[in-house]
Amino acid sequence: MSDTNSNLKAAAAFVDYGLMERSKGRRESASGPGSKLTAAAAASKFLLRKLRELPIRSVLDLGCGDWNWMQHLGFPHPIPGRHITYEGWESSQGLIDALRAKHGQDGVDFHVRDVSTEALPDVDLIIARDILFHMPPEMALRVVERIKKSGKYLAAPSHMFLSNNGDFSEYLDIEGWGYFNINLNIEPFSLQPFLQECVLEPEHHSQKAKRYFCFYKFAQVVAEPMAEPKLETSRPQFSSASRTFATPEVITKSPAVSVIVTTHNNAKTIQEAVASIAQQDVQDLEVIVLDDRSTDKTWHKVENLARRDERVIPIRSNHNLGPSAMRNIGMRNARGEYVCFVDGDDTLRSGGLGQLLERAWSVSADVVRGSHVMHVDNHSSLNSPEHYHQPEVLRTCYADMPGLVQLYTSWNMLIRRHLISKAGIKFNVGMRLGEDRVFNQQVFNAARSISMMKFESYNWVRQGSQNHLSAGVKIADRLVSISAFLNAVAALENATPIHLKIAHASMAFELARCMQINERKGTECWNNINALWDNVRLDRRWVTNPSIKGYEKSLLNDFILSKLA
User: Fold this and answer.
1) Which CATH number fits domain 7-217: 3.40.50.880, 2.60.40.420, 3.40.50.150, 3.90.1310.10?
2) CA atoms within a 13 Å half-sphere pointing along the CA-CB vector of 365
3) For 336, which of 55, 68, 277, 529 is 20 to 30 Å away at the CA?
4) How many angstroms separate the CA atoms of 75 and 44, rounded?
């Protein structure tokens, strides 16, 4: 491809070719396959959402094409009650004449302009969907520099996980007009998505280079009231290893992820836990390490970690408060778009955080949950029951997936921080067991979209006597946990009767274990156990189902079946 100052002739030839193809019935859109309604669906939905959220009054569309999909956004009134002017630029006079005749009106206009050379007007939002991909990189870079000076926001696609911008491949050769896979987030463009907001364009990606439609911000604006909370005004300057997920200061003052690590007397493991986070391929993060008044050398090691890596934020309690209270403190101090919990004796698996974050961005999920590997006395295995209850699901919600009732651990998830703060969700500090699962149900219920992954992103590490955290928990605390869980699920607006049946079935097995322990140890909890049994509603179909969390045939036969009679 020749390096010319103007791409107008090549662009016009490309558009005219598309018009000819459409006239022969070989294309839905003269602009090519990227402008089909199905191909543009994700970008269209995303644009409408951003127009609602941001104070945008004017839009410039570079390479507007034949308006095959844009016409459905409803300019100049895409948002009821707000007038947003639209100006579309194209290279073909014939196409512009047709667009003006069909779509032109007060607030909507089209012009023949050379995007590669002409100065851009000052507008709120510039849309550059595909136009940059049809230019040589040096030309696209010049256009991006002009966009920065003219628009407050840019909406454009990017192959976010392309490692370099060095490969130019043409799929069509009309006067040197081709297609170039580019990643706007790396050199030489070095842009970053505003608020980490990107959506995957399903018909535009391959394993080599997934394509996302992204929103970029170039100038400080005074925002009108919006549903999203304001961002923090400052953050530490993090050391940066160059990776796809790093976000520069000019774009956002909040990290992509806040990893909340709770620890108590974990001097032997805390360094490995924090190192597993620091070495993730998500560099734009903060690591909030909360020491629950350890009596060993844990705090000393945490302070050393913070001195070596300024992404590590150490917090120590004045008294031993318990993991729930410490996690609540962590959430109050978190500034990331998402939060993630890690225990001080566990680790993240290599690439785990990046996989979760990529999924969160690609489907705009409020919650993303990965799978985990158990490590008990140096023996590793999948947690089979947990793995069974967590299928690979791209996007779902609580009402549509009752099986979420059986996911108990709160680590190994990304949770949108705004979701937690808006719903006022906290860990119950009065519980010594099962606070995670109550928290989870409240989060799942509040989430608009939940994504589940089979990808193993977390290591749950236990040694001998640590085999299960509930091993030393008193029966009274177990009963409190069972009651709190059933009450929590019953109170959720999106819980269906199936949610409740599954919850009661799984709690029946926990209650049966309490009876078993009580018989063996002779405790004085019979009255409390029987009182709780009176509140358990058993459904034979579910309680006899081996897939129920905690199912054990001996408990079913010895304690539960008699309750069904």
Assistant:
1) 3.40.50.150
2) 27
3) 55
4) 12
Sheet of strand 198-200: strand arrangement: 108-112, 85-90, 58-62, 123-127, 151-158, 212-217, 198-200
Tell me if residue 139 falls in helix, strand or coil. helix
Q: Which helix (H) or strand (E) segment is 502 a member of? A: helix 497-521
The whole-angstrom separation of Cα 247 and Cα 192 is 6
pLDDT for residue 11: 55
Rounded Cα gap, residues 165 and 191, in angstroms: 13
The yes-or-no verdict on residue 406 having pLDDT over 70 is yes
Token readout for 443 is 């989060």
The full set of domain ranges for the chain reads 7-217
Q: pLDDT-derived band of residue 558, with 50, 70 and 90 as boundaries?
A: very high
pLDDT of residue 466 exceeding 80: no
d(CA 199, CA 160): 11
Q: Report d(CA 176, CA 121) in Å as an integer.
A: 27
Rounded to whole angstroms, the Cα distance separating 512 from 58 reads: 65
Residue labelled with tokens 């959720």? 492
Phi and psi of 74, rounded to 5°? 85, 25
CB distance 492 to 398 below 8 Å: yes
d(CA 418, CA 455): 25
Res 356: pLDDT = 96
Per the model's pLDDT, the better-predicted residue between 220 and 532 turns out to be 532
- Residue 82: strand, helix, or coil: strand
Pairing of strands 123-127, 151-158: parallel
